[in-house]
């Protein structure tokens, strides 16, 4: 799987709003992910969100969306020919749980580098994930760092692209929050 990361902090950079209007706290009931409109748009998103918000997960999510990525570069998704005919994308805002907060940007960098290395080991074509470290607002006077994970996948048909994106989401969720033994 193609995977990369970057920082977007300061200036006019986007921020993660942890408790935005409409926020559904899946940490309390991860199974409610299926109720989200975005989860109904994209098969596999509800399962990934439930896993990322499970009690044993080191992270939680505060927002997700599904969108059309527009024109894609097939090379960036390791796709050829008709494999890049249809594309779909989504993002998930991911925050560390309170007891696992990053104490510095260097810790966030290490985490993203290690996660990208694990994802690159997976033999997935036609998809990629881009991790963007951002400032996260929790309360008016409480900020920390979080990650917006952007996923893009393609396929010959729309269903192929959606299926590959679901696999990509599942792979990221498994890399972050492995099943307990």
Molecular structure report:
The protein is α/β, with parallel strands linked by helices. It has one domain. The protein contains four helices and six strands, in the order ββααββαββα. The chain has helices spanning 37-41, 45-53, 105-120, 158-176, and strands at residues 2-7, 16-17, 59-67, 86-96, 127-139, 142-155. Strands 1, 2, 3, 4, 5 and 6 form a six-stranded mixed sheet that branches. Helix 2 packs parallel to helix 4 (158-176). The longest helix has 19 residues, at 158-176. The protein is globular, with a radius of gyration of 16 Å. The two termini are 25 Å apart. 38% of the residues are buried. The model has no long low-confidence stretch (mean pLDDT 93).
What does the radius of gyration come to? Answer: 16 Å
Helix/strand structural class = alpha/beta
Morphology:
globular
| Helix content class | 25-40%
The low-confidence parts are none
- How many helical elements? 4
Number of domains: 1
How many β-strand runs?
Answer: 6
Q: Summarize the biggest pleated sheet.
A: 6 strands, mixed
Order of helices and strands: EEHHEEHEEH
Mean pLDDT, to the nearest integer, reads: 93
Strand content: 25-35%
Spatial separation of the terminal alpha carbons: 25 Å
